[in-house]
């Protein structure tokens, strides 16, 4: 058995892990990233390939390092196809958006982290955590089948959705969020489709509902002739039935006639609010491991990059002070909640509503709302509805007024939730009181929507 001693151990060479590692290594600390894949395969994961906020990424890995992986920077809107209404909604996408080659992007962020001084251990499968009186002190793993123990002052969990580290660690004495079940997660499947002629919608992200409200199909153009085609669906649904929806749609779209398919992959991702707390003594979770994903779109790259930067900066401060307690790491939670955590929690309210609404009711609601307001709701968690807009929506949703009324009530609860997240506590001891107030708002959401409690 071999043993390594480092300042910070990071599990997972994804976006969050690489940005955290680069941030810490640039400050002169020893950082080891443990990655289960081989060096050749590291960075190759299932992803929708859409990168929102490409112009505002943290600087620990220079944007110039990422740009070669950005294969389509012409996308400026979403295209929502609603066959039941014979309608296509064109919805503007705020800010810069790029469609990427995810494998090339994965290799780029690893390269950027290495240039910052991060060491990588490939073929390394983490199997357990090391823990001393509640504090996480590293991990136990196997590298190419040989036992490896890593001792670290701080361990960062970037292992992805439903991380094994959180299963193995005893976090009962910490504020770390353990209110996590598989039903709060989504399975995603995607394949890369090559066509001979450019698709007409190469400047759009295409979305289409499945036959149940459990998921949606997507077509994201990496280039005009290379399309990332996939779907996402809640884990409490049967995957093969929903994958058949994608196969049927591909077979009936004329632009895909004669297409070739490659690189079929699947993955899990959170479609829930961010963890209430992602810290414990000597431990932080980042990216998918902490629910840092837009729960309505599944977009998680930008959130993971910032979570990595914030965790990295928090780790530096803790190492400098010699204090890796929960309280010493707490500001990481605050920064995440202030940046996008509250927004994502508000967006999750609409996910909750969707579980209690029939697909036809949901699409009727979408058709009745202007694209600008849908875009604002999808990305900010809220939007303004004046009297004129309310009347337009009421007319457009004739026959579905009960749903539109519930939507407006739900929107008010989402706005309440945003305000509650603005009051996120500045210390661990105040979290329980904040959670009680937040949960009271969620009770009103469940009462309005008729949905089963998600948390």
Pick out its properties.
FAD binding, D-Amino Acid Oxidase, Chain A, domain 2, eight-stranded mixed sheet, Geranylgeranyl_Rdtase_fam, FAD-bd, p-hydroxybenzoate hydroxylase, 455 residues, seven-stranded mixed sheet, single chain, 18 strands
Please provide a written account of the structure:
Strand 10 and strand 11 form a beta hairpin. The chain has 455 residues and is α/β, with parallel strands linked by helices. It has 3 domains: 2-72 and 96-179 and 272-338, FAD/NAD(P)-binding domain (3-Layer(bba) Sandwich), CATH 3.50.50; 183-268, D-Amino Acid Oxidase, subunit A, domain 2 (D-Amino Acid Oxidase, Chain A, domain 2), CATH 3.30.9; 347-449, no CATH class. It contains 12 helices and 18 strands. The protein is globular. The strands form 3 sheets. Strands 1, 2, 8, 9, 10, 11, 17 and 18 form an 8-stranded mixed β-sheet that branches. Strands 6-5-13-14-15-12-16 form a 7-stranded mixed β-sheet, sandwiched between helices. A 3-stranded antiparallel β-sheet has the order 3-7-4. It has helices at residues 15-26, 63-66, 102-116, 164-168, 239-252, 301-321, 326-354, 359-368, 371-380, 387-396, 401-421, 431-449; strands at residues 2-11, 31-34, 50-52, 70-72, 77-82, 87-92, 97-100, 119-121, 124-132, 135-143, 146-157, 185-194, 204-209, 215-221, 226-234, 260-270, 279-280, 283-285.
């Amino acid at each position: 058995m071999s043993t390594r001693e480092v300042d910070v151990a990071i599990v997972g060479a994804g976006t969050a892990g690489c940005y955290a590692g680069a941030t810490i290594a640039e400050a002169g600390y020893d950082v080891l990233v443990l990655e289960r894949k081989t060096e050749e395969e590291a960075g190759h994961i299932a992803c929708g390939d859409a990168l929102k906020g490409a112009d505002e990424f943290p600087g620990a890995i220079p944007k110039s390092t990422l740009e070669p992986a950005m294969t389509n920077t012409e996308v400026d809107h979403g295209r929502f196809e609603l066959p039941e209404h014979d309608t296509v909604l064109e919805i503007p996408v705020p800010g810069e958006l790029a469609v990427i080659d995810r494998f090339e992007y994965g290799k780029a962020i690893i390269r950027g982290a290495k240039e910052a001084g991060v060491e990588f251990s490939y073929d390394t499968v983490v199997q357990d955590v090391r823990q001393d009186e509640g504090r996480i002190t590293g991990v136990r793993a196997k590298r190419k089948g040989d036992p490896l123990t890593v001792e670290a002052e701080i361990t960062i969990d970037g292992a992805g959705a439903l991380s094994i580290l959180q299963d193995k660690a005893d976090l009962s004495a910490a504020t770390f969020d353990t209110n996590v079940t598989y039903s709060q997660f989504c399975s995603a499947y995607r394949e890369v489709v090559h066509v001979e002629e450019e698709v007409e919608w190469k400047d759009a992200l295409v979305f289409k509902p499945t036959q149940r409200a459990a998921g949606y199909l997507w077509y994201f153009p990496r280039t005009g002739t290379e399309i990332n085609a996939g779907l996402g669906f809640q884990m409490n649904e049967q995957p093969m039935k929903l994958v058949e929806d994608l196969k049927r749609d591909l077979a009936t779209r004329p632009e895909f006639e004669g297409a070739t398919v490659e690189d079929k992959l699947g993955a899990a991702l959170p479609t829930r609010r961010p963890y209430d707390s992602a810290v414990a003594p000597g431990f932080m979770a980042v990216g998918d491991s902490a629910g840092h994903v837009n729960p309505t779109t599944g977009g998680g790259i930008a959130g993971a990059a910032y979570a990595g930067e914030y965790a990295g900066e928090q780790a530096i401060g803790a190492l400098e002070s010699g204090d890796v307690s929960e309280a010493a790491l707490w500001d990481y939670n605050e920064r995440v909640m202030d940046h996008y955590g509250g927004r994502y929690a508000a967006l999750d309210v609409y996910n909750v509503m969707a579980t209690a609404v029939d697909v036809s009711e949901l699409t009727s609601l979408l058709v009745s709302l202007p694209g600008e307001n849908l875009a604002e709701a999808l990305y900010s968690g809220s939007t303004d509805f004046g009297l004129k807009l309310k009347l337009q929506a009421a007319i457009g949703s004739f026959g579905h007024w009960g749903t539109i009324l519930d939507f407006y009530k739900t929107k008010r609860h989402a706005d309440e939730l945003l305000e509650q997240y603005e009051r996120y506590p500045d210390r661990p001891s105040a979290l329980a009181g904040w959670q009680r107030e937040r949960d009271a708002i969620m009770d009103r959401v469940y009462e309005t929507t008729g949905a089963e409690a998600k948390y």
